[in-house]
Amino acid sequence: MLLVLAPKLWRGTRRALSLAIAVLVGLAILNVLKGLDFEETALDLVLVAVLVVGRRSFSHGCRTRPRLAVVGTAVAVWALTYTVMLVGPLVADRGHTTRHTLHPIRHAVHHLIAHAVRAAATVTTGLSHNLILVSEVLIGCAVAITLVAVRSSLRAASARNTHSAADLQGTRALVERFGVDSLSPFVLRPDKAFHFHDDGVLAYQVIGDTAIVSGDPIGPPGIAPRVLRSFRDLARERGWQVVVWGASARHVTAYRELGLRSMCLGEEAFVDPSQFTLEGRAVRKLRQSVHRLERRGWAVTVCDGQDLAASDAAEIAVFEEHWRQSQPKVLGFAMSMGAFTAECRPRDLYLLARSPEGELRAVMHFVEYCGNLSLDTMHQVGDTPNGLNEALICHALATARERGVAEVSLNYAGLGHIVRHGKAARGIVRLLTAVLSKLVGERFRMAGLVRFDEKFPSEWRPRYLVYESRLGFPRVALRVLQAEGYLPHRDASGPARGAGMPLGQRMRRGAPASAPK
């Protein structure tokens, strides 16, 4: 039981502290009763004293009660074990009594009856031995189930990864007023819960005992650290570990002042539409992609969410359904709006690409944030020409330039900064970069996405993973991958999400039906 409690003691769970003190006191009493083992008793009491003195360090809560089904099973198995251990000696004694009582009769009765008597005595003796074996097995099962029951009492509190209509309305108002980050609109996904503090809000999803915060908290300037501190206090009461996924550089210093750690896990590409042009040798491949679409008779329609016709919205919904059927999993969490809905944000930008036959083959969606645009999805279905994604982004940048949009956020390249900075490095740094790219590059397509984003005149900005402790980092990384959909988890409350696209590409938002060509 102490081994079961050890991980939760390390995490600082109050209930684990109480149970550990109770177990150590019980051990001390048993060591005295079984033979006056004062050394062992003294060790137990010293450990109790250490835990009592350091009880202020145990600030994490847990679920309010253990699983009743597990506790009931443990009690039932212990009761059955006691019954078997009580009956065993009686059966064994009855076997010996039967043999001694019937021994004189065995020589006087018929040979057949004697065999029956011996068989009855043998069965009785064998039953006693079997009961001893059964009791040992039952003890082992009872101990195991008891440990499971103890572990269930230490589980983190469960959470509903969703929100009410009133919370959604309040969060949307804060996003429209203070959502200056390119990830701010994505907190409105239906599979996220909200935490409000003062005039700010953050969105999160709980998987197991980890609360994954989606991007930076949203609110007036300077309020983000206070909102995160408030949520961290709540998470400690519920036994959750906190991680911020997709944090921007503007708040990293304040997060560190809260005692959190940070790690850069990639860079996000931003384009200034006023500086974008298709003239010049540097963008000849983009120019070729646009001309290729025109030569082949493809039509591109650009419209706002408020101007999207009902027929187009219905067509996009059918298109999205076909796209999802072609994907083993659908990825995205902190950097995606999720499934298409008929409720379109009025200032979002939609680009529809139709084949010469008039069939809708590609849909690209940009969400609006404080007058800027952030790429959400770029989906394709069926046969499409090379460079279709590049051509659609060029159309979006041209539209943004006409409307005076200050910046457009493109793909987030997970671990892409390692590839970009590794090109200019020398010696061991360059060697390590090459090895890392070889190991995970094919799976996550880091270099490919960096090359795709570098086709545009992009400015790169880092994105961070903010977490609580180094020892908890492996679990944090696992939970983030589960939230993004790369690994399955039992706590999913929304539609299934998952692989089918490289990590670096899909971790930004909405996987296209194929990689950028």
Task: Give an overview of the whole structure.
- The structure is a single chain.
- The protein is an alpha+beta fold and 517 residues long.
- Among the domains are: 1-57, no CATH class; 63-155.
- The protein has helices spanning 2-11, 14-35, 38-53, 68-108, 111-153, 165-178, 224-238, 252-257, 284-295, 310-325, 388-402, 416-424, 427-444, 446-453, 473-484, 503-506, and strands spanning 193-197, 200-207, 210-214, 241-247, 261-271, 299-304, 349-354, 360-369, 372-380, 408-414, 458-467.
- The protein has an eleven-stranded mixed β-sheet, sandwiched between helices.
- β8 (360-369) and β9 (372-380) form a beta hairpin.
- α1 runs antiparallel to α2, α9 (284-295) packs across α11 (388-402) and α12 (416-424) packs antiparallel against α13 (427-444).
- It is elongated.
- The model is unreliable at 492-517 (pLDDT under 50).
Gyration radius, rounded: 33 Å
Q: In terms of per-residue confidence, which ranges show pLDDT below 50 for 5 or more consecutive residues?
A: 492-517
SS-derived structural category: alpha+beta
Strand residues, percent: 15-25%
Number of beta-strand segments:
11
Mean pLDDT: 80
Order of helices and strands: HHHHHHEEEHEHEHEHEEEHEHHHEHH
Helix content: 40-55%
Strand order of the largest sheet: 1-2-3-4-11-5-10-9-8-7-6
Descriptive terms for the model:
alpha+beta, 517 residues, 50% helix
Topology:
Layout: H1 2-11, H2 14-35, H3 38-53, H4 68-108, H5 111-153, H6 165-178, E1 193-197, E2 200-207, E3 210-214, H7 224-238, E4 241-247, H8 252-257, E5 261-271, H9 284-295, E6 299-304, H10 310-325, E7 349-354, E8 360-369, E9 372-380, H11 388-402, E10 408-414, H12 416-424, H13 427-444, H14 446-453, E11 458-467, H15 473-484, H16 503-506
Parallel strand pairs: 3-4, 9-10
Antiparallel strand pairs: 1-2, 2-3, 4-11, 5-10, 5-11, 6-7, 7-8, 8-9
